Amino acid sequence: MAGYFEEMGWRELQEGEQPNHLLHMARFLIDFGMYEDNFSGEWPRLPPPASKEAVQNLPEVTIDSESKNCPICLKSFHSGDKAKEMPCHHQFHPTCILTWLERTNSCPFCRHELPTDHEGYEAFKKEKKRAEQRKEDLDTLHNSMFS
Ligand SMILES: [Zn+2]
Ligand SMILES: [Zn+2]
């Protein structure tokens, strides 16, 4: 097994260090190509809830036009209504978006993601990004060698 760990760029834990099982799992899924075959690069289930901090920090805005709908309940806003605004600038009734974000972390309209408190999911996202970067590097290398 030593060869495998070396190949993956892993080192043995130093004294006092704890293994990070969640990170291990994320790497495991990606390095074995499982996430490509089975999950097509997506988290295998609904992403976890948005972090409480991110939710608390969503700015409250006042609706100034009658023409917009809340994408969750589809009721139209009235001028002067309070709404919560996501970082992607989509606006929702506070109760609609807060209930939604207790279930999953992304904007129901455009899937813009808020941070979560879920270590496993954050590790997964980080590793996914790293894998994409690695693939890009390989593509660049491939193109420079074969074109
Ligand atoms: Zn609503
Ligand atoms: Zn959005």
Task: Indicate the topology.
Layout (H helix, E strand, L loop, with lengths): L1 H6 L13 H11 L2 H4 L14 H5 L3 E3 L19 E4 L5 E2 L1 H8 L17 H28 L1
Antiparallel strand pairs: 1-2, 2-3
Helix pairs in contact: 2-6
The structure holds zinc ion (ZN) (2 copies).
The site of one zinc ion has 7 residues, from loops.
Could you characterize what this model shows?
The chain has helices at 2-7, 21-31, 34-37, 52-56, 94-101, 119-146, and strands spanning 60-62, 82-85, 91-92. With 147 residues, it is mainly α. Among the domains are: 52-101, 2-Layer Sandwich (Herpes Virus-1), CATH 3.30.40.10; 118-147. It has a three-stranded antiparallel β-sheet with strand order 1-2-3. The chain is flat and about 55 Å long. The model is unreliable at 34-39 (pLDDT under 50). Bound molecules: zinc ion (2 copies). One zinc ion is lined by residues 86, 88, 90, 107, 109-110, 112.
Properties at a glance:
147 residues, binds zinc ion, 42% helix, 3 strands, Herpes Virus-1, single chain, 3-stranded antiparallel β-sheet, mainly alpha
